[in-house]
Amino acid sequence: QVQLAESGGGLVQAGGSLRLSCAASGCTFSSYSMGWFRQAPEKEREFLGVASWNGGTYYADSVKGRFTISRDNAKNIMYLEMNSLEPEDTAVYYCATSLRYFSSSSAQYDYWGQGTQVTVSS
Question: What is the CA 45 to chain-centroid distance, rounded?
Fold first, then answer.
């Protein structure tokens, strides 16, 4: 059974940085695309970026240049490095894995973590 677990969220001041982690188990991590999403209160889930099995990445325009995804296939962990954080980045952040797609659509992801809260104060 595939399980994903995010960690690293917390409270940070505007302009600060955080690094989120997503630990995967129960799957051949190195074979699948891994994505990051977030959801703010009363808003739809938002795509942030995706890393392919071989490390290729694609980002949403809203975070391009501020957020960086990396993955360590040997450790089954994916990271989201977030810089220049703004209050608008406050949300629950989720990682997800897609068994078949390299995609920005949440509908094409098969497994999701429980999420980690990121709060950016002004």
Answer: 12
| pLDDT tens digits, 27-49 | 778 889 999 999 999 999 999 99
Which run of H or of E encompasses 11? strand 10-13
Among 20, 48, 36, which Cα is nearest to 96's? 36
Distance from C-alpha of 59 to C-alpha of 83, rounded to nearest angstrom: 14
Q: In Å, how far are 14, 61, 67, 94, 122 from 87, measured between CA atoms?
A: 6, 17, 15, 18, 6
pLDDT tens per residue, range 47-57:
999 999 888 99
Dist. CA 2–CA 25, nearest whole Å: 6
